[in-house]
Amino acid sequence: MNGSEAAAQGRKEMSDSGRTRSLYLYLLPMVASPLLMIAAAFFIIPTTWFIQHSGNTYLENLAYATKLQNVDCPVVVWGDSTAMVGVDPAVIKARTGLTTCNIAEFKGMALVTQTLLLDEFLEHNRRPRYLVILFAPEAMFMNTDWSKTPTFEAITYLVQTQPKEKVFRTLALHPVDTLGWAGLGLRMTLTRLDSKPASFATLHQRELHHGQLPVTGPPEVSCEKIPRNGVPDPRWLQGLRRRYNVDGTKVFIDATPTPSCDPGLVANLRVLPPLIDNNPYPTYPYDFYIKGDRLHVNARGATMLSNMVADQILKQMKWEALVAPR
To answer: Would you call 144 helix, strand, or coil by DSSP?
Structure first.
């Protein structure tokens, strides 16, 4: 190769190298932006400032179970948001005389953390005499698919409380959900910069209601076919019963009642009876539910649902009194 050819080859290599650098520089923001967004989210979203300015009632009252230490609740209610919204401990105590703690969370918490909150409650408090597990019929299963269930609050709780290696290991399996969590949290941050922090009553709403988080809104006016994310899983429900129906605790597994005109009622009546304790499976008028909130009951519905749980416990207490040694 003569001198001119070598020079040309050198210029070509420099040109190729320049194009490669330009490509890298072009791609760098595209690759770095999601990573920087997630990193920023890890610093901002778990903070007290973010929680108090979020305007998210669920987030502001997250993980009530962990706030209870050395309490004696003979009745404990655990489940999804239908239980958190619908079961009033005051009604159960008035009927049974037993202090009741409602430690239910929305479905996303159970999906992401499994039984973590229930287990932590049992570890740090006196074991309950009765444990009521209450889920919406289509939520009575557990899997690893986060895409169909809101998980923002649950991921926030995971980042706030769990060891970093466990968090990273879990979130690495759900990159799309993690990116969505970061993006939503940062958007909330920008929109809430000038907002006032939540009031004391808002931040302590669950403490003020022994764990219930009442939701208000207009009543439902009709039955609408709402897509369901799953069907009851007998193995999961039986596993819960075996795991917690020990050491003097009686477990009740209940399905949240649906409206009598609910399109899924026929399927529920076919599947649920052998799996649940509130059998025959009850139905409520559709105007006992909040409009647009799947199976979240209003005050009238909460009174009926809470009395259903109280009736179960009273029946069990009566049976226990009959078979007790004399």
So the answer is: coil
Inter-helix orientation angle 152-161/175-191, to 10°: 90
> Which residue matches tokens 């049992």?
122
Q: What is the DSSP letter of 75?
A: E
Closest by alpha carbon to 150, among 221, 229, 209?
229
| CA–CA gap between residue 88 and residue 76 (Å, rounded) | 11
pTM for this structure? 0.86
* Of residues 129, 93, 72, 85, the one with CA closest to residue 310: 93
Q: What is the pLDDT along the chain (326 residues), one digit of tens a residue?
A: 555 555 445 444 445 455 556 545 544 454 556 667 778 888 899 999 999 999 888 899 999 999 999 999 999 999 999 999 999 999 999 999 999 999 999 989 989 999 999 999 999 999 999 999 999 998 888 777 787 788 999 999 999 998 988 898 998 899 889 889 998 999 999 898 888 999 988 899 999 999 999 988 898 887 765 556 567 889 999 999 999 999 999 999 999 999 888 888 888 888 899 999 999 999 999 899 998 888 899 999 999 999 999 999 999 999 999 887 76
Residues 224 and 263: their CA atoms lie apart, in Å, by 8
d(CA 229, CA 220): 21
Instruction: Give the dihedral sign, CA 313/282/272/305.
Output: negative
- Asked if 135 and 255 count as a contact pair (C-beta separation under 8 A), the reply is yes
- For the four alpha carbons of 196, 202, 207 and 211, in that order, the dihedral sign comes to negative
